[in-house]
Amino acid sequence: MVECYIMKKWILFISTLLFTGGLLISCASTSSGTETVKKSKNKSAKAELSAPAPTAEEIFLNQLSGIKIEFTKASLKTTKNKAFSSAYEILVSDSSAAPLEGFEITVSLPESKDGINLVYAQKNFTTDENGIVSFTPDVPAFAAKAQIYAYPSIPEDLNLTQNDMAEFTATADFISESDVVAKGAIMFVFEYNENGKSPKNSYDVLSGLRKKGVYQIGNAPISDSSYITASKEKIYRENYEYVGTDFGYLIGGTVTFANPVEKTDEGNFIAHMIANMYGIDMKTGAVIYEQTNEYTNTGSNWSKAVDGCRKELTALVVDSIMNGL
Predict the structure, then answer these.
(1) What would the mean pLDDT of 268-281 be, rounded to a whole number?
(2) Which of 23, 154, 155, 236 has its CA 20 to 30 Å from the CA of residue 196?
(3) SS3 category, 295
């Protein structure tokens, strides 16, 4: 009887101990969970507080949202050393298509040439009450076929470039043709066969320029193929001794096959040709034009592939000379 009483008492003690331990474990878990939530909330608050403020550049670009710049008038092409016949006109409007008065824009346009490289200048304008800006480029003393760019003026204290304004930029053609029609030229241009041999004076380029109105043109007095590897300066100097400034320019270069004509599995022929050209001012001796053009043509036979390639490449070369020399 005594043993039974002791056993019951021991079981009661063990049960009480287990129950109390359970409560302690439960409380500990709840406390830990609450602490975790508090830490998570603190991290979120810190993240919100540390979000970077927009930069001055971002604010400026956001303010331009919806603004449209467009050329409404573009001048016709001119000729080197002659004024443009009419002005360019630009319209600036807001997101509701209403004209913006007092809006400052920058116009980037060709201004000169440094050797063969085109030099751009930037000019700032402010729109009138109709949102209009009108301007006429200076008389170009160079030939070029290029672009004029108009975009919102960038404040000096902002770290932005013209490239960052691409979304808000309008463009128009700038074309100043060469005065080679009036001044004439001598030719030092050679064509090679597909094996890279037998160079001969290029009749195609000469004929193509005549079709453009360049009648005062012919092969240079010194136009022997042995001079092909000579420097541009030597070719110019020795020809200058014969013609002086009777002709305005010396046009030189080569027309070659990039590789022998290929025959495809389908039986067609592929011709790939390259023209490396340059132009020298006979008055100054300066190289003012350099251009590489290439063309690939497919034909049903060798002649059609080569003749078609030569014809299209010649057109590219002539257009390049007329707009770059």
Answers:
(1) 98
(2) 236
(3) strand
